[in-house]
Amino acid sequence: MNVTVRQLAEWVRGEVLGDPELTISNARTLGEAQPGDITFVENGKNLSAWHSSKASAAIVPVSVPVNGRPIIRVSDPLMAFASIVRQLRARPSEAPGGVSPSAHIHPSAKLAPGVTVGPLAVIGEGVEVGTNSTICAGASIGRFCKIGSDTTIHPRVVLYDECVVGSRVILHAGVVVGADGFGYRTAHGRHIKVPQLGWVEIEDDVEIGANSTIDRGTFGPTRIGAGTKIDNLVQVGHNCQIGKHNLFCSQVGVAGSAATGDHVVLAGQAGVSDHVTLGARVAVGAQSGVPSDVPDDQHVFGSPATPVHEQIRMHFSLRRLPDLRAEVKEIKKRLDAGSGKNGN
Questions:
Q1: Domains along the chain?
Q2: Cα(228)–Cα(241) distance, rounded to whole angstroms?
Q3: Catalytic annotation on 238?
Q4: Catalytic position from the list 106, 154, 191, 238
């Protein structure tokens, strides 16, 4: 597909500087771009890469100067570039898939208009699926689940019975929603399973990455708030109440009955203990362990996690330990020598 820089600018509502009639055939990142490609410069740190890039044009922030090649100035280069890539690489739209003959759908299930069900998918008794939602190949939707509109359930996702999924939700391959929480009582030297009789509620506009798991509540819901984005390989335990617009990076673990406020960020491999509450806008650093509540607007790091400024102070103190040890040895040596002289 060949388009001019002017046309690309119209797609993203940007300002062209340089030759607007230059023809562009592809969109690639700075390191991969070739002549005839458009690329993007996200911020000033990428300017040297842009100057050495083979790309014929670039999408740039409004502050970037012209360097002889056409540029398109926009407020958000990354999202503008994503839009252009999507359109340049667009394939003809697939016709609505309908329901695969190999899918198994219970007679009592209710599928709204525009629903697509892939091969070997299973939809159980009493399930409700909203308009234009897609259940991909091999997904399993348990009894009495409810799924909103424009939601995508990717291959081999499992929804256990009675789970609720909102609209515009994306569940990537291998996600498991509603498995039993890890709850046991010890009696007479044995671990006795506590029945997990609750469910999971995933609110609108949530995205959950591949092979992540959300356990059902013990008696009520485990809840994932609207707009929250969860990376691959994340575990959310039973009874957790996750706020709106949270970001959980890969391999995060949130133990049972923990709660988060809105706009919380958990970096990769962070762990949150059971019954801990993280306030709104809390950020937890990578590989941190959070054993106790954190108030609003705190940034914490380490294990156990403490405010970042405390961790910085401890870090610099630790770096000084070898020198401090040498100084103490020298002081001790002098004291010992002085004691020997006094004894003589």
A1: 3-88 (3.40.1390.10), 104-306 (2.160.10.10)
A2: 12
A3: yes
A4: 238
